[in-house]
Automatic annotation (TrEMBL):
Enzyme class name: isomerase
Domain of life: Bacteria
InterPro entries from the UniProt entry: PsdUridine_synth_cat_dom_sf, PsdUridine_synth_RluA-like_CS, PsdUridine_synth_RluC/D, PsdUridine_synth_RsuA/RluA, RluA_PseudoU_synthase
Chemical reaction(s) catalysed: a uridine in RNA = a pseudouridine in RNA
Similarity-based family: Belongs to the pseudouridine synthase RluA family.
EC number: 5.4.99.-
NCBIfam families membership: rluA_subfam
Function summary: Responsible for synthesis of pseudouridine from uracil.
UniProt keyword list: Isomerase
All copies of domain Pseudouridine synthase RsuA/RluA-like, residue ranges: 92-247
Name of the molecule in the record: Pseudouridine synthase
């Protein structure tokens, strides 16, 4: 990438060829932009190369692609006075805790009440950083996943954080409660992950055009019908932990409505535990640790957040039954 904030030079690598089948997929991944947005740039002559290129085809390895991204327009999301727990903040970034049940950014069906709406209220100067519809957002957590997230407040910091995530040079630890007691004590899960061929809401392992996904896991404790698991991400694919636990270990996350069957989960647990979780609509998955080197100040940052009350209540109950 070049030094100019809105001009980029992308060199197509062999790894890109192994992972993608189209140039727009490569650019979307490396620039954190949508393919529809890149298509508009291409039509306007803002995506060029010294040789002829097409978005729907992969150019040869070594091809340099020049992308000029116009200054971001004002965000379409509106600021909303939503309570937001901020663990750290400076002029470049903020570390926040996303509550369970909150969507990360506006999308069809969830245009208000999102983390972005809350951030726009708490960080007044963040509009226009990154994607216009997702100002400041560098990574995301599923609606049902709680935990620590970093938000960029400047374009330079946004680019630096994107580079950290793409290089996997960031520590991300999660904890989950799995509806299985047969998980190995620890291990490394590796596959590709892509859109499920028959259910567009789900992801699946080893599908065509899937992207490499790596999850390291360790069982913290086995209980009668459940396991408390710590997971460290090397990559950050959509639904990665949920897919890996359910499809590679046959141990989906407790109360996961997409990769498990909550009604079946409730039948497998103690009646007293059932009373605690029966109205809970989300997987028991929490992003507990986020650590990285600040892309601007080079300070080492490390943040840990305990799980939500109901998550902890389940663990306390399981401990009490030992």
């Amino acid at each position: 990438m070049s030094d100019q904030a809105n001009s980029f030079v992308i060199t197509v690598t062999q790894e890109d060829h192994d992972e993608f089948s189209r140039l727009d997929q490569v650019l979307a991944s490396k620039l954190e932009q949508s393919r529809s947005f890149l298509k508009e740039l291409y039509k306007k002559g803002a995506i060029t190369s010294e040789t002829k290129i097409e978005l729907k085809k992969m150019p040869p390895v070594g091809t340099q692609v020049y992308v000029d991204v116009p200054p971001p327009r004002e965000s379409t999301a509106k600021a909303e006075d939503i309570p937001l727990k901020i663990l750290f903040e400076d002029e470049h970034l903020a570390i926040v805790v996303k509550p369970v049940g909150m969507v990360t950014h506006p999308a069809p069906g969830n245009y208000t009440g999102t983390l972005v709406n809350a951030i726009l209220h708490h960080c007044k100067d963040i509009q226009g950083v990154g994607d216009e519809k997702r100002p400041g957002i560098v990574h995301r957590l599923d609606k049902g996943t709680s935990g620590v997230m970093v938000v960029a407040k400047t374009q330079k910091c946004h680019e630096g954080l994107v580079n950290l995530f793409q290089a996997h040079d960031i520590d991300r630890y999660y904890e989950a409660i799995s509806i299985s007691t047969k998980l190995p004590p620890e291990g490394r899960l590796e596959s590709t992950i892509g859109r499920h061929p028959n259910n567009r809401l789900k992801m699946a392992v080893d599908v065509r055009n899937g992207k490499k996904a790596v999850t390291n896991f360790k069982v913290l404790k086995y209980y009668q019908n459940l396991s408390h698991v710590e997971l460290k991400l090397e990559t950050g694919r959509t639904h990665q932990i949920r897919v890996h636990l359910s499809q590679l270990l046959n141990g989906h996350i407790l109360m996961d409505p997409l990769y498990g069957v909550p009604k079946s989960d409730l039948k497998k647990v103690d009646t007293r535990l059932r009373a605690i979780i029966k109205d809970y609509e989300h997987p028991f998955l929490h992003a507990k640790i986020l650590g990285f080197v600040h892309p601007i100040t080079k300070e080492k940052l490390y943040f840990e957040e305990p799980p939500p009350p109901v998550f902890q209540e389940v663990l306390d109950f399981l401990e009490s039954e030992l």
